């Protein structure tokens, strides 16, 4: 009996690990936003660099 209850607990742990919520998605969205802001700033600010 102890073996099956340990297997059930490990299966529940695996299922719980898969349902952690929007953590990974939120992390990816934030990284893309930061990269997008840096790229936009670079594109805008490079126009002010004039060698007249």
Describe this structure in words.
This protein has 52 residues and is mostly helical. It has a domain at 22-52. Helices cover 77% and strands 0% of the residues. The protein is built from 2 helices and no strands. It has helices at residues 2-18, 23-45. The chain crosses the membrane at residues 25-45. Keywords: Membrane, Transmembrane, Transmembrane helix.
N-to-C SSE string, H for helix and E for strand: HH
The coarse silhouette is rod-shaped
Helix content: over 70%
Instruction: Give the mean pLDDT.
Output: 79
User: Spans with pLDDT under 50 lasting ≥5 residues?
Assistant: none
The total of helices stands at 2
Backbone CA Rg = 24 Å
Structural class label: mainly alpha
Distance between the termini: 83 Å
Got a strand count? 0
**Largest sheet geometry:** none
Report the portion of residues in β strands: under 5%
Transmembrane segments: 25-45
Keywords: Membrane, Transmembrane, Transmembrane helix
Provide a compact summary of the structure.
Keywords: Membrane, Transmembrane, Transmembrane helix. The chain is 77% helix and 0% strand. It has 52 residues and is mainly alpha-helical.
Features:
transmembrane, mainly alpha, membrane, 2 helices, 52 residues, transmembrane helix
Write the layout of secondary structure elements.
Blueprint: H1 2-18, H2 23-45
